[in-house]
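Quiz preparation item.
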């Protein structure tokens, strides 16, 4: 089983390899979901790949995360990046956007593809569909249980990767729009503002349940003792989170999991490694959903940020200049220049300060002390406080968050770039004539074929026959000259020499010829890349979005509901302007689902009914999807909507395919560019839905390209986060059980005055804005840019038929 470590820069990658990583995953300066990490330049990536691949008996791997959503004008920037990453020999790309998958599959099929956790693949159906789509590996949602992992890992001919350690997103990755909608900073584009770490006031039915808590602040995932179970289950790779973490953190956590996997901890070493990690950076640890789908005690609602390792409790604050804090060390030593922090009620974050001096009291309670550099475990000490320190009370817990001793325990080598960078082999053939030198170069990059590069040097003076050197010596001189490729991206592979006249060639001439040949090869490769980029762009530009068979002559409305009674006040004339009614099956009960669908069909007409599968379909959930889908298909329902790639497989298992039904895609499949629409169209998807958080200018550009293939959300309660964590259980610290639960919804407000509605969806928490998305003032503009289908969704919130009717009248 592979141990996969994060690397935000070259030094971190070196540290990961030093401490046992089998592979690292990194991001480039563009299109990385950790845009605020340092990330890699192409030069650093060349060095890293050279370092990773230099040991033929134990080659390490480098995966590049190209895992952001692209806007329509960004594919022109992505294509040259894909060309370069392929030519550098990256071991795989991690992707979220179906556009990236489409471009790689269509034009660069030699690059292995890993489905990012942001694709929210969480079941066997998702594994099977990803395999069908050409992915080599799936990075599962962090929410999967051991039972689900076992089922997913058993799928043949595709690998499964599981997160084992690190920070957790509150929502299913990829299904969070909190930052995008509230702050215009999209987490799906690498610019998350971490709304989930905010402090919130919580209210429900007019009652204040909490004046301030970090309701969504997750603990850190730590699967520790389960890693060998994961190997037994067939998991291909365990992944450590942390592309924004320091080299020290990555070294420590990689070292820890390397020993766990290998089972070779020395006595006491495991505890020391765990303390090191917690000192460097760690929140409290949790297994999250590994044991149970609806796990509780996975959030840390009272504190946010790293906790550190506990080293004692405040005994007293000694006034003076400066004030000093007195406590007894518990658990480990402390030395000058370490860092401490204390958690304070009512503050979003703990108060931290450096250890600028240590006073040691050998007699415990006496006033006699000595200033020391290091205080051992059990010592009574005083440490000076900054002038601006808050009030501390006796008994408050003290944590160490920075340790010089920990830093000394981890070391890694520096990189000699010239010796490790990736280079492309070049074969040379040299012909020596009396008045000219000709070299033909043949570069090798993967399986690609290139034209020979011919370089001719005409000589000012004719060459003379060699009387001093043998043919072998002349050959050796030429080989030495051509092997000196220096800072070029090439390495010497071989040289064939034809010198029938036995001419002597000055070394200076050979060096000039080598430099000119290397330059000509570089220019040829650049032309080839430019030509390839142009061909890809022209091919994509030539694609025309197919108009669906039901495309209306004038713009039409589609309504989406999740309750059968939602349209009870609609009369026949109200339904005349409705092209389709989409019913979200995810919020219906299996026992009544078929009859509920039939009831809706009698109301609006079966031809207008489209049935929607939810974005999350847990194998251990409450729905027996295959059974109910088969029943509905037999009943003659031929219109379906999907929100996750796995839904295609669910449908196919009961013979529902694009060949015999109409299938459309909702916005969680993220069509923010025409290449993603191209990908879905090739699968037989008839319509796609524009993302509700997509900037207006990008949506308008897309509409000009997609026309009737696109649905435009005009009115909806956009789910800003879908979470497996019950917000009510987080608040109360326990779950009453589904049968005893009376939690319906709550309102939360942060200190910036941003208010969200939290809805209970069968033990999932769905976060909505207080006010729904309403873009009815833009309908005419959308239509002018080619929109043919407009959407009004009445799901998630407890909409009454009266409210729905009033909003529909306004929209019409």
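Solution:
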């Amino acid at each position: 089983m592979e141990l996969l470590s994060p690397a935000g820069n070259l030094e971190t990658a070196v540290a990961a390899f030093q401490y046992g990583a089998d592979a690292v995953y990194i991001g480039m300066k563009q299109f990385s979901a950790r845009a605020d990490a340092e990330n890699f330049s192409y030069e650093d990536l060349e060095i890293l790949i050279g370092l990773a691949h230099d040991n033929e008996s134990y080659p390490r791997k480098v995966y590049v995360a190209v895992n952001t959503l692209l806007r329509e004008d960004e594919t022109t920037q992505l294509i040259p990046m894909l060309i370069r990453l392929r030519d550098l020999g990256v071991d795989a790309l991690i992707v979220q956007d179906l556009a990236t998958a489409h471009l790689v599959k269509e034009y660069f099929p030699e690059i292995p593809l890993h489905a990012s956790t942001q694709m929210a693949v969480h079941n066997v159906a998702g594994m099977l569909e990803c395999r069908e789509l050409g992915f080599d590996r799936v990075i599962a949602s962090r929410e999967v249980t051991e039972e689900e992992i076992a089922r997913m890992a058993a799928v043949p001919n595709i690998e499964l990767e599981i997160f084992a350690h690190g920070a957790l997103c509150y929502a299913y990755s990829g299904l969070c729009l909190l930052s995008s909608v509230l702050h215009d900073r999209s987490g799906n584009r690498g610019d998350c503002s971490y709304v989930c770490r905010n402090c919130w006031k919580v209210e429900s039915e007019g009652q204040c349940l909490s004046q301030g808590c970090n309701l969504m602040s997750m603990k850190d995932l730590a699967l520790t003792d389960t890693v060998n179970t994961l190997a037994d289950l067939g998991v291909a790779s365990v992944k450590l989170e942390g592309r924004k973490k320091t080299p020290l953190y990555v070294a420590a956590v990689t070292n820890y999991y390397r020993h766990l996997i290998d089972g070779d901890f020395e006595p006491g070493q495991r505890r020391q490694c765990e303390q090191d990690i917690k000192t460097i950076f760690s929140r409290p640890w949790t297994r999250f959903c590994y044991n149970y789908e609806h796990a509780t005690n996975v959030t840390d609602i009272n504190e946010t940020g790293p906790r550190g390792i506990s080293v004692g409790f405040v005994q007293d604050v000694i006034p003076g200049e400066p004030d000093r804090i007195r406590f007894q060390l518990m658990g480990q030593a402390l030395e000058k220049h370490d860092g401490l922090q204390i958690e304070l009620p009512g503050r979003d974050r703990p108060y931290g300060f450096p250890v600028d001096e240590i006073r040691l009291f050998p007699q415990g309670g006496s006033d006699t002390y000595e200033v020391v550099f290091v205080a051992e475990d059990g010592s009574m000490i005083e440490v000076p406080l900054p002038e601006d320190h808050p009030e501390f009370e006796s008994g408050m817990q003290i944590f160490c968050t920075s340790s010089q001793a920990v830093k000394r325990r981890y070391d890694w080598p520096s990189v000699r770039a010239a010796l490790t960078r990736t280079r492309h082999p070049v074969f040379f053939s040299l012909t020596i004539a009396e008045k000219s030198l000709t070299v033909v170069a043949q570069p090798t990059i993967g399986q690609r074929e290139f034209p020979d590069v011919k370089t001719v040097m005409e000589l000012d003076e004719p060459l003379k026959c060699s009387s001093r050197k043998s043919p072998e010596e002349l050959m050796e001189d030429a080989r030495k000259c051509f092997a000196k490729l220096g800072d070029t991206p090439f390495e010497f592979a071989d040289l064939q020499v034809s010198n029938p006249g036995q001419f002597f060639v000055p070394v200076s001439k050979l060096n000039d010829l080598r430099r000119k040949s290397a330059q000509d090869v570089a220019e040829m490769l650049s032309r080839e890349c430019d030509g390839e980029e142009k061909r890809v762009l022209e091919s994509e530009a030539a694609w025309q979005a197919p108009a669906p068979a039901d495309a209306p002559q004038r713009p039409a409305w589609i309504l989406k509901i999740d309750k059968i009674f939602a349209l009870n006040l609609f009369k026949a004339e109200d339904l005349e302007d409705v092209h389709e009614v989409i019913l979200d099956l995810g919020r219906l009960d299996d026992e009544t689902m078929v009859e509920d669908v039939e009831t809706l069909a009698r109301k609006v007409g079966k031809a207008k009914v489209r049935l929607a599968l939810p974005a999350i379909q847990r194998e251990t959930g409450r729905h027996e999807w295959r059974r109910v889908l088969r029943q509905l298909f037999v009943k003659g329902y031929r219109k379906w909507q999907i929100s996750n790639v796995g839904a295609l497989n669910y449908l196919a298992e009961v013979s529902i395919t694009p060949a015999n039904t109409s299938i459309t895609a909702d916005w969680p499949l993220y069509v923010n560019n025409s290449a993603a629409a191209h990908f879905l169209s090739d699968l037989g998807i008839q319509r796609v839905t524009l993302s509700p958080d997509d900037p207006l200018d990008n949506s308008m550009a897309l509409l000009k390209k997609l026309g009737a293939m696109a649905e435009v959300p005009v009115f909806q309660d956009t789910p800003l986060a879908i979470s497996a964590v019950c917000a009510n259980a987080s608040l109360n610290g326990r779950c009453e059980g589904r049968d005893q639960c009376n939690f319906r919804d709550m309102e939360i407000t942060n200190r910036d005055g941003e208010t969200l509605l939290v809805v209970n969806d069968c033990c999932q928490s769905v976060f909505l804005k207080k006010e729904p998305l309403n873009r009815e003032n833009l309908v005419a503009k959308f239509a002018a840019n080619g929109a043919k289908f407009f959407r009004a969704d009445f799901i998630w919130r407890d909409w009454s038929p009266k409210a729905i009717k009033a909003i529909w009248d306004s929209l019409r």
